[in-house]
């Protein structure tokens, strides 16, 4: 809803919203009650919104910062009030010496999760500070990677845990490109589920399990999406849950060769999970990748081809998962490559069953543009052409020849047309294969250069040369595939 002049505050001031509101501090006490609640706030709580444009801003603290979060929040809010902001994802930069307090305590300030748009920034109206409903999320990343469980000395461990928000999962959310609103849908679902639990909604009347199932072909980002969702929620809900933990269960190790040990491993794993979820201010995410491996073990056991221990262990795991339902602060995330192989009893438990497919032309273009942008940023290729903004991928995909604006010069038009062609040729590639292309393309370029002989000293490739090399890498990948699979 766009703000009107009449709705302006007389005293211009930023409206800063933070984290979950406690029941006492909720809506009705808000200054300007409206007739209906508009949408859940950043933490899933229903709030009476004023007519401002919501802007989610993540403030990542420097690892060495010990500053008070409240002071940081106030300093960043004051700083942003002097800036021209746009409703577009991206970093908010600081000039050197502009604000030494922020500079010495903050690693990055980033606008995130703005609605999808196909408009170039130049055509968008800037937001004035009184128009913004500023939602600041201040956090510090945990630098200590994942810790393996030491419960299975003879084999790979049965789970790994991370304290969130973790450096390992930083910016994974932003790197995943889908042209459906799957990311926002998962975020909204998880926020609603946690809100229902937090408010003690009666599960006999309204049923939900806090179980998500993502299904789709390999390399489409399912595992990454689970990790990114957990990280995002840990950041969004930091005021309500100061601690968040991500537990990645290694289903293969639970049900591998040590079947007689499996039951014990499942018990130990859940004893650890229960220990965490019993802390009310700790939000716990449990990821079980390739969930079909559990249920297929059960099916095989029924048909007599797996030991009875396997069936006991799988049943124990499903029972334990059911037991987690009574804790309000846990979300179970599962993935599968083969939907048909999943036990129906499990599919039924999942509240959200989302199919994640290979990227569409628009998503492929977006991914390829972001890859080439990264090569430019890292100085691996020349920054000689301004690439189309990645969010223009949709318009570019719909264009015939890569022309997406009247102000494109010849080099930009050529680059856009070449990008479009490469993206069209990658039909059927997974996100994982697309993210590998820059590396393959660089190797292709080096090979071509070596063939030119020693008279040509290596020079930094230009952007267009790199896009052309992407085309060669795509053909090489297709050749490898047909050699492998016929
Ligand atoms: N839609 C996408 N957008 C951007 N990157 C993607 C996308 N899909 C996959 N990737 C890239 O592929 C990598 C592998 O993804 P991930 O392992 O999460 O896929 P997966 O679906 O869980 O695969 P598998 O089923 O084989 O375990 C990610 O790190 C990410 O860089």
TrEMBL record:
GO terms for molecular function: ATP binding; ATP hydrolysis activity. CDD domains: RecA-like_Pch2-like (cd19508). It holds the Pfam family AAA_lid_TRIP13_C. Residues 1-47 are annotated as: Disordered. Residues 1-21 have a biased composition (Polar residues). Residues 208-360 form the AAA+ ATPase domain. GO terms for cellular component: chromosome; nucleus. One of its GO terms (biological process) is meiotic recombination checkpoint signaling. PROSITE patterns: AAA. Keywords: ATP-binding, Meiosis, Nucleotide-binding. Belongs to the AAA ATPase family. PCH2 subfamily. This is Pachytene checkpoint protein 2 homolog.
